[in-house]
Amino acid sequence: MTEPDSHAPRFTRVPRASDDAAPLVHARIKLTDSLDAITTLLHHAVDGGRGAFQRDSPAYACGSMVIIRIAALFETDEFDEFLGATPETVRRAIATTRHIASHSGYRSMNDDVFWSTLTEHLPPYLATWRAAVSR
User: Fold this and answer.
1) Does the residue 15 lie in any domain?
2) How crowded is residue 5: how many other Cβ atoms within 10 Å of its Cβ?
3) pLDDT tens column, 65-76
4) Alpha carbon of 62 to those of 49, 65, 114: distances in Å?
5) Measuring CA to CA, how many Å separate 111 from each of 54, 60, 63, 126?
6) Residue partners of 78: CB distance under 8 A and separation at least 6
7) What local confidence, expressed as pLDDT, does residue 102 receive?
8) Could you tell me the residue range of the domain that residue 62 belongs to?
9) Distances from the Cα of 45 to the Cαs of 41, 53, 56, in angstroms?
10) Could you give the number of structural domains in the chain?
11) How many CA atoms within 13 Å lie on the side-chain side of 2?
12) Is 2 inside a domain boundary?
C-alpha cells in the first residue's frame, strides 16, 4: 500500500450559509458556478462542429448535460431573481428537451434541432442570465 501524497489537494467542505446570510448572495454565487460549468460543457459540445456532434459521442453527451444542467436551474425558485425574465415558452422547451435527453434517449431527439438549440438559441439566454447575475 502506498502512502498518501501529502501535496495532493484535499477535499475541503464549504460551510453552509448561515441563517443570517443573504440568500441572494449565495444564489448569485451558485448560479455563477452553474453558468460557468454549463458554458464549459457547451464549449465541449460544439467545439468540434456539427460533424463531431454525433449520437454516443462525448460532444453529444456534453450537449445533453448542458440541457440537463440548465433545466435544473428552473427547478427551484432560488434563481428567480436572475432567471425570472426567461419566457415560459423557453422554460417549457428546455424542460421538454431535458426529458427527452434524460428519459427517452437519443432516439427521440432531432439532432439538427438539438444542434441549433445549442449553437443558436441557448447562447443568447446564457449571456442574458450571466448579465443578470453580474448586476
Assistant:
1) no
2) 7
3) 999 999 999 999
4) 13, 5, 12
5) 8, 9, 11, 21
6) 23, 27, 30
7) 86
8) 23-134
9) 6, 7, 12
10) 1
11) 3
12) no
